[in-house]
Amino acid sequence: MAQTDSLCSTFSDIVEINVGGQVYVTRLETLTAVPNSLLWAKFTQSSPADLPKDSKGRFFFDRDGFLFRYILDYLRDSELFLPEFFKERKRLQKEADFFQLPELSRRLAAVSKDSSYVEDNGEPEETELTSPVTSSSSSDRALRSPGANSGYITVGYRGSYTIGRDIQADAKFRRVARITVCSKISLAKEVFGETLNESRDPDRPPDKYTSRYYLKYNFLEQAFDRLAEAGFHMVACNSTGTCSYGSNDPGEDKLWTSYTEYVFCR
What we know:
By secondary structure, this protein is of the alpha+beta class. It has helices spanning 2-9, 28-31, 38-44, 68-77, 89-98, 102-114, 116-120, 138-144, 170-173, 185-192, 220-229, and strands at 14-19, 22-27, 59-61, 80-82, 127-129, 152-163, 175-184, 196-197, 209-215, 233-245, 254-265. It has a six-stranded antiparallel sheet. A three-stranded mixed sheet has the order 2-1-3. It has a two-stranded antiparallel ribbon with strand order 4-5. Helix 5 runs antiparallel to helix 6 (102-114).
């Protein structure tokens, strides 16, 4: 036991891991929450020098980086909520098997079997996988009920890019200043969770609407992935743009600025 404690203490309390190209930052106690799991073994029975790392020194696992978010949620709380219209349950079960989480794998298999009739008939379903000793509050379940969660989310962003002689210059090609979110509070929090910045419109009840939220990252594709996973589909978009020169010299590169909105519906 003393040897295990010594190995574990060599890892930082905050751990950065790269799973299939997706970077996650979490606590060591989260990664080792389930005894005898693969992550528990890696981070208690090995030293940092024994684990593969990427070019920036982060511990690397060659698995599905997007599905790992659900693995991490399960490790944190021993429970898991999957979004509506979730179509990758079998793939997630494979990830649970790889990370040696038999209880999670068993629940995913049971839910897949019980919901097969519903899925075959094309009806929306919601999956709640909870620990036997923990459960979500009724308010959380209300936010996830299909009837309460239908609606629209508008994602907007202001961006700029330069087109000119040096078109391959990455620093000038596209810059997204901020991604804004307009929707009912409950929808925005369900889809974007902890990545949603509420500082411009805090403490509003979930049944109200806001146009002042924005995201903590500036990758549109990341926002679109979240919306797709939650069962949203884009129904409209519009954009405006202006063009100017970096100086009064017409020979200089042209600077384009734009504002674009995408409307998603579920």
